[in-house]
Amino acid sequence: LKEIILWDGDLVLVDGVQCYEDLGGGVMVDGFMPAWVAVLILIVVAFVYAALTMYMHEEKYGPLLFGHYIAVCLLFIPVVRGLSGGRIKGPRSMISNAWQSWGFCGSLRMGDPPATPSLHWIFTRAFHNGGVHGDRLPPKTPGGRNLRYCSEMFTAISDVNSRIAVVFGFLTQRQNFGGFDFDRIMRIGIARCACDDLFLVKDKSFETDWMTVQLVPNLSDEPLADYCQLVADSNPTTFKHFGDTPIGWCSWYYYFKEVTAEEVNRNLDHLLEMRESIPLEVFQLDDGYQKHWGDWVPSKDFPEDMREVSGSILRHGFKAGIWLAPFAVDKKSDLAKEHPEWLIKNKRGKLANSGSVGYYFYGLDASRPEVMEFAKGQLEKVTKHWRFNYLKVDFIYAAVLADGDRYDYTRTRAQIADHAVREIRNAVGDEVFLVGCGCPLGSGIGFFNAMRIGPDVDRTWFPFLKWDKWNLPGARNAVRNTITRSFMHRKWWVNDPDCVLFRSSTLFKDEEIIGIATVVALGGGMLMLSDDMAQIPQHRYKIATSLMPPSNLAAIPLDLFQAEEPSELLLRLDGATGPWMLLALCNWEHSVADKTFWLSRLFPTEEKSLHVLEFWTQRYSRMKSSEPIKARIHAHSAVLFAIRVAENDSVASYIGSDFHVTSGLEVVTMSSSSTKLQLELNVKRSTKDAHVTVFLPFDPQLGVKTSGSANDPIRKAERVGPDHRIWKVPVGLSETGGKLIIEGN
Predict the structure, then answer these.
(1) Secondary structure class of 148 (helix, strand, coil)
(2) What is the pTM of this model?
(3) What percent of the chain is helix, strand and coil (3-state, nearest 5)?
(4) Phi, psi for residue 75 in degrees, rounded to 5
């Protein structure tokens, strides 16, 4: 059994549904004829012109006339482009999602090229060959129509004018890796379930995973929320809870494979000294400690007993983290030599292509019982014997390579992956915080505490091929996926956006650091640093600490269907200071851009008076909800506004701070009156040179006095801007927080 295709012609299972009829109109094509017709006209016109010219000049100017012929062809090229165009335009857009952690997720507008890896399939196909993305040629419907756009596991198609959408998605990926294909106007498509040459025993049947179709007649800001919850309900967690969102340090992006036990201890000592101001919880040793992939024993740079390393980490007060790729095997490893039958081979008997990470490696066939016993043994060794309690499991896709032959054909690749991740969780137990990476997304739901949801961030904005939008390392691709997969956070797992790098030796500009930090903060997911902390400049250190602790909450991309890289993020919050919003406006273009956002989109019913504070610059504005926010934003950067309704100008109120990115979650309790504002502040770390911005209805001529354990007695409060009732008040906090009392003199 190779594949199960579900096709109902027009609009996959919703043909004729009244709610969706508006998606059928509004399609335009640049030009009014097919490209081949326009080219034929060009050739005929040019030929006739040349023939007439030669007839008139009695063929004695042959070379010159040949030049005329070429010139006419060149002159007609713009005309051909105008006549044929060939690029469809229309109001529809589609969310395209790749199979595993590193692949593309984003919105494609009608007429956009399909999302595909930039490198040749020899290098990347293994990374993305799930249910639909592995095809080298575009598939066709049973009726013979070419399909152009595809998405793994789920998709949504929207009409941005009428604000109507349809969500298609599989509830689980336990039986098949499945997905969806649509034609170039996003109207005709199929749902596919890969069966991977499944061998069905006589009188046995096979059932796919359940699929849902959701009609969204009034497109909300969270069109995938209901689907996401259905998936979560269909994949209950096999452990107690997701746990707290980790903040920590990882060795990879500074040391790569050159990490040593000596450097581990040096960084532990340094982080311990900084613990009051940067309270990291996890210290994770990444790739490089082992002899080879597959030979999970310490290299010469680490002690033979890795309990010495985990013990040192635990004694310093951190969770002990380690990296493992149980289904990936280095060509030079002893395992590859001793058990060649375990390695996945292709149909020709050659070792299967596992994708290139700068070099090729082998995948272990997880359909073999002895392979699973080996993998479980390594997982138990690092968690139970070596005593690491935080485990990042990488390259999981290598256990189910699509081009590979396998030991057991009575199970699909999805069934094998499902068994593999179950055994991973069973081997490590409930108490280990388990992070998945390079994992088929549908297979990981319910088994991992956290999941990488994008490619490696690397030390530059662009990947080495600037046009790549898939798995090549680079901050741009990681940032996009952090936004577009934000809806998964704390429903399927804790999102892992990869590390944030703050040191000066990267190629990031300060403005790009702010753009990355804004997206990571509003994603609410894991925050992992990967620097030599001594190389972080003070101003970037302040950016890093402002992200701690994470909010745990994910913002909504307001323009999810309008842009491949959404640039408007909204997070609604409520706390001790009352309700407020965080609005991020991002500029993913490659030069400075002016952005305008009408506040009436957030307050559509009645006009409000608003306190608006931009976090990174601490610029304050008093605005009306009928006005636009206008911002000039650096390339690859962002601005972040805390927006509060000014309910009562006769009572003191809180506006924001410069030491926590949410401008509000740092407030534990608040009481206010016309003469006093009392705050209890806590960010679980010490702060210096910090401020809160507040509205005080006191007589501005009298000034204010401050007191409490969070009061900074040396620095004085200052008025902000033309409104003399806005004050910037200095604070100083210990790890346990403090109280601040502000009152009129």
Answers:
(1) coil
(2) 0.90
(3) 25, 30, 45
(4) -65, -30
